[in-house]
Specification:
CATH topology: 2-methylcitrate dehydratase PrpD
Oligomer: single chain
CATH architecture: Orthogonal Bundle
CATH class: Mainly Alpha
Radius of gyration: 18 Å
Distance between the termini: 31 Å
Helix content: 40-55%
Number of helices: 11
Number of domains: 1
Number of strands: 2
Shape: globular
Order of helices and strands: HHEEHHHHHHHHH
Strand content: under 5%
Largest sheet: 2 strands, antiparallel
Length: 283
Amino acid sequence: MEADTTQYDTARLVFLDTLGCGLKALEFESCTKLLGPVVPGTNVPNGVKVPGTSYVLDPVAGAFNIGAMIRWLDFNDCWLAAEWGHPSDNLGAILSVADWITRTNKAGGVNGKKLGDGRTFKVRDVLEAMIKAHEIQGCLALENSFNKVGLDHVVNVKVASTAVVSKMLGLSERQTMDAITQAWVDGQSMRTYRHTPNTMSRKSWAAGDACEKAVNLCLKVMKGEEGVPTVLTAPVWGFYDVLFKGKKFEFQRPYESYVMENVLFKVSYPGKPLAYNIGLSKD
């Protein structure tokens, strides 16, 4: 990726803003009660350090923890298109994997074998991963409305995080495609938890759940799990027929850095009320 000042400068602001949202969420017991290892007391050598806490977790649990923190207060960045969403949700997966790989590789790897390409990640590497994830999620959202078929926008988080984490883990092109197909076939969240009469706190940890699943699927593919070649297009059983009313995805632009350069920050109010206030359609 070429070093463009605009995209990296914005990515730095998004990074700081997103972490700030996560750290503020730690003031709320409704959030912190969901954090930590699956089994209390578990500590992972060279694991992910969850910002603002004493937890050191595996990268899958780390992705959920960081992702849930980020999204809890509904104030991280937003993207308004055919499908709305919050591209910085992907930082849950990105930061978890970057931290785990870096700590593990600095310690000599796993059984003497380093992860990925053997690198240790710098902040700039994290920013680059964010730019890519923003672009994937945002471009999917431009023309394709998942809420109209009852699905939650976190499907785009899962797909974008899977693609970017695959690269971070050093997966091949074939493996990356396999991982992405696994993300599409994984089953998608119904967005009923965002609407009456079922509105509930799951909407605040749904993105963390998507990040957790993305990392888990990438690690499975890294171990040799295969993909699902026609997951979208298979008649009757594919995503388009089962979950998208037979419609195929549409795209209006190639993947570059458009989304990061145009993402919206929630300065004084959450993003969806912003859409109403400036006269945009809620879609």
